[in-house]
Amino acid sequence: MRQRGDARRSDSTVDISITIDDDLCLLEVGNRGRTPNGAGLDAQLPAPLTVGGRGLPLIAALADGAAFVAGPPDRVLLRITKHLTDVRTSPIC
Question: How do beta strands 14-20 and 65-69 pair?
Answer without folding.
Answer: unpaired
